[in-house]
Amino acid sequence: MTAIILINWNGADDTIACLDSLDKAAGEFVVVVADNGSTDDSLSRIRDYSSHLSVKVDVVALGKNWGFAVGNNRAVSHAAKYNPDSYMLLNNDTEVEPDFLVKIEDYRKRHPEIKVLGPLIKYWYDRNKIWSCGGELVFGSRKAYFKDMDAGTLKTAELPVSFISGCALYADASLLNPNGNLLTERFFFGEEDFEFAHRMKQHGEKMVILTDSVIYHKVGSSARKMSARAKLGRDYLYYLGRLIVVREYYNPFSTALIRLLSRRRCRHYFIRDGLDKNSAQRLVVRLMHDAKTKEGINYEDFRSIVIEGSFFDNI
């Protein structure tokens, strides 16, 4: 039995649509919706709606916004009472095909040695186009497979990968760490799945995307609403998280080389986000310092960098 985990934060409309699609899905599963301290009426709306569904939905209030990783881990811990043999982390702004889970379950029965899988994720607004089909870890970064290509391009039902998006990540229960967590809790925002992929690679676990297991992601809706300063903060935190992970999983020489190669790319993104060349260069210097000294990204970092933007006042 699989425990499907949804994290909600002020997103009842998306969560309800996702639950509606899961209610039509086949397979043996329970859904745990963890509300990350919503400040609107999400919690009551989701509880009311889920009470009328045929699928088992367990709604738990986490009390505050713990972020993606901690929120998922707390939901996983809550779901442990159902004794699932696997967990499926699923973004609340997705909708699923009715057979998406049975495709994964059938594959697991035939290949029990593969403990990490993912479905093919298509854009919700363009259901012939691929948003994520996994990818490959490449020297401190990741290379996406078939990104933004027509789904008809795919000619295989299973695709070996070394990276799977946390948007839809299926993992065997045996992969929980001794604390009962699936994801690292060092990152309030971004790159939890990047760290997970490196950890699985280190442990010799293989990953597969099943291209006939399909879900749809409403990607971009929140990003389009972000201010220019928030987009800059998002990019800064993504690269900060990535470089912190690199420091953990690569030797010192490789880490130094990856940092050097990242400088130009980061500068490009910071200019694209609205900084002038000199400000972008100063921000790159700050990023490299933070990547060398920080152990993770906490809520205070997220608040000052993405929400308030005060982090950039002296850049």
Please count the helical segments: 9
CATH homologous superfamily designation of the largest domain: Spore Coat Polysaccharide Biosynthesis Protein SpsA, Chain A
User: In angstroms, what is the radius of gyration?
Assistant: 19 Å
Poorly predicted residue ranges: none
Structural class: alpha/beta
Largest sheet: 10 strands, mixed
Order of helical and strand elements = EHEHEHEEHEEEEEEHEHHHH
Q: Please state roughly what percent of the residues sit in beta strands, choosing from under 5%, 5-15%, 15-25%, 25-35%, 35-45% or over 45%.
A: 15-25%
Give the overall shape. Answer: globular
Q: What is the CATH class name of the largest domain?
A: Alpha Beta
Our measurement of the CA-to-CA distance between the termini, rounded to an integer number of angstroms, reads 51 Å
Could you characterize what this model shows?
The protein has helices spanning 12-23, 42-50, 67-79, 100-110, 192-202, 228-249, 252-272, 277-293, 299-307, and strands spanning 2-8, 29-35, 57-61, 86-90, 94-96, 116-123, 130-132, 135-138, 141-144, 158-161, 168-172, 207-217. The chain has 315 residues and is α/β, with parallel strands linked by helices. It folds into two domains: 2-217, Spore Coat Polysaccharide Biosynthesis Protein SpsA, Chain A (Alpha-Beta Complex); 226-312. Strands 1, 2, 3, 4, 5, 6, 7, 10, 11 and 12 form a ten-stranded mixed β-sheet that branches. Strand 6 (116-123) and strand 7 (130-132) form a beta hairpin. The longest helix is centred in the last third of the chain and has 22 residues, at 228-249. The radius of gyration is 19 Å and the shape is globular. The model has no long low-confidence stretch (mean pLDDT 94).
